[in-house]
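Methods: holo model generation. Sequences were used as deposited, without trimming of termini or removal of tags, and paired with ligand SMILES retrieved from the corresponding compound records. Each pair was processed once, and we did not select among multiple samples. The sequence and flavin-adenine dinucleotide SMILES for this entry were:
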Amino acid sequence: MLGSAPRPSPGRGRETADVAVIGAGLAGLAAAHHLTAAGLRVTVLEAAGTVGGRMATEEIDGYRLDRGGRLLSSDWPELRRCPGLETLALRPFASGVLIRSGDRALRIGPPRAAGHARSVRGGGRRSARAAASALAGARRPLSGALDLARLRAQLTRLAATSADRLRTRPELPVAQALTARGVPARTVEGLLRPLLGALLCDPDLTTSSRVSDLVLRGFARGGLCLPAGGAATVPELLAAGLPPGTVRTGVRAVSVATNAVATREHGTVRCRAVLIATGAHDAAELLPGLRVPDFHQVTVLHHAVEDDAPAPEPLLLLDADRRGPVAYTTVASAVDPSRARPGRTLVSSVVLGPAAAGPVGELDRAARAQLAALYGVPTGRWHLLAAHHDARAVPAMPAPHDPRRPVRVLHGLYVCGDHRDTSSPQGALRSARRAAEAIRRDFGIRPRSEDPALPTAA
Ligand SMILES: Cc1cc2nc3c(=O)[nH]c(=O)nc-3n(C[C@H](O)[C@H](O)[C@H](O)COP(=O)(O)OP(=O)(O)OC[C@H]3O[C@@H](n4cnc5c(N)ncnc54)[C@H](O)[C@@H]3O)c2cc1C
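and the model returned the structure below.
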């Protein structure tokens, strides 16, 4: 099971930590929090020069540009419960979601009062039913009242249904499940495909219908948001809350044993347990035989706009007609003003599916034409700041999908990350909690009585 690179020789030398965590993405950093809270000495080894993994943000000319990890759900319990994220601020898409199809523009409103950034903790939750009906209330639909009524009914039902109940439903690829449930093709194509495609990064709707129901339920209950300051804010907050010296960047693990990690240039780290918190491919390098899922690829295009700016509305704009490569787009600086200098506008657009692999020049040309139609402004003078492509952005979750893949390989060796759970920051954080619990149990450390049980959710 262990990696083919030269094995760290077990049993010699001094332990430098109780647990060596490999990878400082969300999963590795969250696990480090849980483990240090249990009184364990932890060292986190990160190959890259910075923490965050796929939740990265780069700064260009005063713009803060996310490389990935874009849409968060305010309903994710781990964002509220993970230690270290107490001060995380989320910026909601306060004007909701606008789906454009032909001459129709269907707006799905946000589930809570619009216009204000919300701290993750401390916000009171309205009842699921009230939230869902506010969410589903369309404002000024140009047409498609029947489609809207169907979506309203579905969202209201989903928001009021327990996650456990949704997990007992038959599991099919979501496109098939929608047909089997009698949802008309027009509703699927006009509303659900663009919405679910964006939420799941899966425009072909191959994802498990259970996952899709849970994701749609989270959307109905909490709406969508971006982390204030960029995706990297989340891992940076986690890293800052760990004891100084816990995270070591620029250290690549090349092989593991149950009590040691061999690194490329920094010798061997001795420990009592190893937790691999990398993406799936890197985990399988260290643990040959570990399952590697297929991935959904994503390209993010960031445009700086000085003239011909679109209306600064904090909404997510979806293109049901798929008239170009962009699946969804947002005026990111309207959702989170910290992403551009005052007076500047940042438009971020996401390309999903095979189109995401296209050459940047062609993508940019086709996207500009599409964005001009979607926003109703000329885009010729927009400036492409960056195009980030990731072929392994989001692990696919086809049916049947096990959202609780085992995190314990054997005593002393554990694995976590979004590929062991659901493919999202919430899944990465929850897998970390499960892995830390397994380590604590193997070490004979009793859970603290004040630890509340984790609510079940997607
Ligand atoms: C472009 C893009 C768009 C996305 N959009 C969304 C979205 O809209 N909604 C959503 O929910 N999710 C989205 N995601 C997915 C989300 O970002 C991930 O699910 C989440 O960040 C995974 O966190 P992780 O900790 O499991 O893994 P990672 O973030 O991949 O962290 C793994 C870390 O391990 C390190 N590492 C790897 N190998 C080694 C080694 N040998 N030694 C030391 N360190 C190593 C890596 O450098 C990395 O820092 C998107 C991702 C991308 C890339």
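Residues 22-28, 45-48, 53-55, 68-71, 201, 252-253, 277-279, 282, 298, 300, 390, 393-394, 417-418, 423-425, 428 surround flavin-adenine dinucleotide (CB under 6 Å).
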